[in-house]
Design a protein that fits this description.
Structural class: mainly alpha
Shape: extended
Strand content: under 5%
Order of helices and strands: HHHHHH
Radius of gyration: 20 Å
Number of strands: 0
Distance between the termini: 74 Å
């Protein structure tokens, strides 16, 4: 065996690999559930596949970014860490239309004040 192959074989036998996978399991669960719910909701509303996929991707990225915050809140209030999945899935259920409407409302409140 040459050194390059031996080094690669040692990386594949990392004993902490499964521990790291288990640590990220709630993150993956939140991302997958959010994506699935947002995708099915987009398709149920009668939208095309591309729009449903894009909406699901946006919801998933938002929930992945907010998941550590939800975990910290669950930890602060002595709740189970799996409780943090629920708000992420709720974001997927609300969808991108709701988020866009809320962003427009916030924009009107903040920026609209100076444009008058």
């Amino acid at each position: 065996m040459n050194r390059k192959h031996e080094k690669r074989a040692m990386q594949e036998r990392d004993p902490e690999l499964w521990q790291r996978v288990i640590e990220y399991l709630p993150n993956l669960a939140a991302a997958l559930l959010t994506f699935a719910i947002a995708l099915f909701r987009g398709l149920q509303d009668g939208g095309p596949w591309k729009k449903a996929m894009l909406g699901a991707l946006v919801c998933t990225l938002l929930s992945v970014g907010l998941f550590p915050l939800f975990q910290a809140l669950a930890d602060r209030y002595d709740l189970a860490p799996s409780v943090a999945i629920a708000p992420c899935v709720f974001l997927g259920f609300l969808g991108t239309e709701w988020m866009r409407n809320k962003a427009d409302d916030i924009y009107d409140i903040i920026v609209g004040r100076w444009r008058r």
